Amino acid sequence: MAEFSPTEAVFAGFRFVRERPATLLIWSAFLLVVMALALVAMFDLGGDQMTALLAASQATPFDPAQITKLSQAIAPASSFALLLMVVFGSVLVTAILRVRLEPGNHPWGGLRFGGDELRVLGANAMTLLAVFLAETIVALAADFSAQAGLPPIVVVLVGFLLIVCLQVRLSLTAVVAMVEKRIALGRSWALTGKGFWSLLGAYVLLLAIVLVILFLIVILFSALMASVALAGGRGDPLAILLANDFGGLNVVVVALYAVMNMAQVWLSMVLLAASLSMNVDAYKAFAAQLPRV
Which one of 43, 119, 232, 249 is most buried, by most CB atoms within 10 A? Predict the structure, then answer.
């Protein structure tokens, strides 16, 4: 790809996913296991506070103060779960990049653990740290503006846009770690300089397509669950489980609920694989104009 075309890159990403249904299934299963481990860790470390948070999120009326208090209480559990997601997520990202960059057969969808995974983990950790620092600065600026009597919403909106720009500029860091065998945020920053707007447009297009698909999936399954519940069941399965009212569960509703969540995991995997494929195309196009030094 001599020049980076947002539309071409997005649909090339979807073709990459479509041509590997078995590999996508392996990646989806891996992601599902990782998410399950993170959730179990949160409940194990968070205990009753985690259950209380889920119950509060289902309550009517919604109490933001209580949600904030409970979220702060389970912060250690959330941090550990995030750590699991970052570590195993980097293994998944490396596998996708390996399949995308290296033609040939890749047993287990390219999933393994070695030097490439460690470099991608380091690249992802550095990127997350940079974004976290930017978010902290925005939060402090918003708090300062509020104390000065200025509307913090302006600072928050500007900060949000700047953070999005930062994420786009650093979005090729994992590809750089995989191709150039180094962790270099500056390299991603340099590569995305002139191609920033085209890369941002590609992300917006990809996200718009996925959100439309997700909306249709949620609407479809919600309608099916509502129909079945009206015919013989009652309530949201999660709310019933939190109330320990197992007798109120409808088997069909639970099955639909599970299938809907698995479909959302699959769609998340499609989004991740397509976006990483798009990043590889962007790297190749931008690196041709800005060779490695």
Answer: 119
